[in-house]
Specification:
The protein has 483 residues and is mostly helical. The protein has a single domain (2-392), classed as Amino acid/polyamine transporter I (Up-down Bundle). The protein has 19 helices and no strands. The chain has helices spanning 2-16, 18-26, 35-38, 50-62, 65-73, 79-105, 111-119, 121-153, 160-176, 183-207, 227-234, 243-252, 261-285, 289-349, 356-373, 378-406, 412-431, 440-467, 479-482. Helix 13 (261-285) runs antiparallel to helix 14 (289-349). The chain is globular. The termini are far apart.
Length: 483
């Protein structure tokens, strides 16, 4: 219990200390007009309040990641707590804040445009393909996951195919309509449900004195589970996730003032880390050890863990509400995944999104592809999603490092976590069956060599960009007239 409570306390402390440091390093310009005003189009660029933006950001980035990921990560033991806390404070929240702020400074640009500007034009095409693939996988996975949970919650009385169709119908509306019509109105209620359900489980763990294991050398990795690199691909959204880099620009287009950004971007990542800690602790403590947890996962997957934890902690009614809170997570990330994909494609092809027809012809092919992807085995999709997700995080962190390097600011706060994850990403794809299938030793050697070469390229490009005085932000000379 002490490890769990200390982790929660460190996450909160991290927001007020390291979060403030990152904000200071970047440098807020409170007087600068934001894209919400400069580019206001009534569809994607719409000023919204800090509470609304914060809840939307939390729901956008949360998905099932901070629940299903930590539940699976609980098999590694209390070391999962270390990755959630350290990863969230020093990597994930930094990643989200820098992505959001750099996007705000560049008219709400998405990651492919930012990568093109700061890492080279070739990267625009590479990152665009990565981002669309990632968002398609997220949208598809986040159709089947909530559909299965709802199907089980209703005891199979409603056909799974009908539930999937209903979720797709909602996604189409949320993708096409202006951001303040559905997302801006429903998310505050969804956010309240999510927070209440997570707090209910967390308080239940403390009040009942659940036997949450403490971190020690003996249980650092139960059954000699391979912590490196697999843990960093099992727990993503609760610690570091490239998916967030596809979501933060959506809120950079609705943020009213740069001063609100630490609460919205850094703060909501910390909130997600707390949710991840709660579910990891529940999974570790309520199934008679790791063997029991493994049996439940084998029988019904993370969804079965969610159902059992919710019912045991909160009773029948409270448990049902908690499961609904978990169902909300993937749905509120799936809809914004498709919306982000539509916006990225429109930005890539330079197509205005004011007209409904322009949004429609971009979005419909995405949904057709997603329907086809639902026919592929979930486990295969998830493996590719995990690798694409963390690869995207590496790119976003290197964009942040490049921005800070050119600005002659402390770029190490982004480059260190980016380099760490680059090593893990390369080692994973070299070793994994979905990749090259090399031995672990060969994979680490190849990963190290690849990382050194890419770092050399990064510093070469960074010095050139600094010498050429690459502009860090769009010139907004008329902010007084629009803010």
């Amino acid at each position: 219990m002490y490890t769990f409570l200390a982790g929660i306390a460190l996450l909160i402390l991290g927001y007020f200390t390291y979060g403030k440091l990152i904000e200071t390093i970047f440098g807020v310009k409170a007087e600068r007009a934001t894209p919400a005003y400069v580019n206001n189009d009534g569809v994607d660029y719409v000023p919204m309040s800090t509470p609304k933006n914060s809840l939307i950001q939390l729901l956008n980035i949360a998905g099932t990641g901070p629940i299903f990921g930590p539940i699976m990560g609980a098999l590694y033991g209390p070391v999962a707590f270390i990755w959630i806390v350290v990863g969230c404070i020093f990597a994930g929240a930094v990643h989200d804040y820098l992505t959001g702020m750099i996007s705000i400074r560049n008219r709400g640009a998405h990651l492919p445009e930012l990568a093109s500007k700061f890492l080279g034009k070739v990267m625009k095409h590479v990152v665009n393909a990565f981002a669309i693939l990632l968002l398609l996988l997220v949208g598809t996975v986040f159709v089947s996951t909530p559909a299965s949970l709802l199907h089980a919650l209703m005891n199979g009385k409603v056909a799974l195919s009908l539930i999937i169709a209903a979720i797709f119908a909602y996604y189409i509306l949320a993708t096409l309509l202006p951001v303040d019509k559905i997302i801006g109105r429903l998310y505050p209620y969804f956010g309240a449900l999510l927070i209440i359900s997570a707090l209910g489980v967390g308080i239940g763990l403390v009040v009942t004195g659940a036997p949450i294991p403490e971190l020690s050398l003996r249980n650092f990795h139960p059954d000699h589970a391979p912590v490196f690199p697999l843990l960093f691909f099992t727990i993503t959204c609760g610690a570091l996730s490239g998916f967030h880099a596809t979501q933060t620009p959506m809120i950079s287009r609705t943020t009213q003032n740069e001063q609100q950004s630490r609460k919205i971007f850094y703060g909501m990542m910390i909130a997600e880390g707390i949710i991840a800690m709660i579910w990891a602790a529940a999974a570790m403590s309520l199934f008679n050890g790791y063997g029991g947890l493994n049996e439940v996962l084998a029988a019904g997957g993370p969804g079965a863990v969610v159902s059992e934890v919710s019912a045991s902690m909160l009773g029948a009614i409270g448990g049902t509400l908690a499961v609904l809170g978990v169902v909300v997570l993937p749905i509120t990330s799936g809809d914004t995944a498709f919306r982000s994909a539509r916006m990225i494609i429109a930005e890539y092809l330079t197509i205005s999104q004011k007209k409904f027809s322009s949004r429609l012809w971009i979005a419909l092919p995405l949904f057709v592809l997603s329907v086809l992807l639902t026919q592929i085995d979930f486990n295969i999709l998830w493996r590719y999603f995990s690798w694409a997700n963390q690869s995207t995080a590496v790119i976003a962190l290197f964009v942040g490092a490049m921005y800070l390097y050119i600005a002659r600011k402390n770029y190490w706060v982004s480059l260190i976590p980016g380099t760490f994850m680059l090593v893990m990403v390369l080692a994973y794809i070299l070793n994994a069956p979905i990749g090259f299938g090399l031995s672990m030793t060969a994979s680490w050697i190849g990963s190290t060599i690849g990382t050194v070469l890419l770092l050399a390229l990064f510093f070469h490009a960074a010095k050139k960009a600094r010498a050429n005085k690459l502009p860090l932000e769009d010139d907004i000379s008329d902010w007084n007239s629009v803010a």
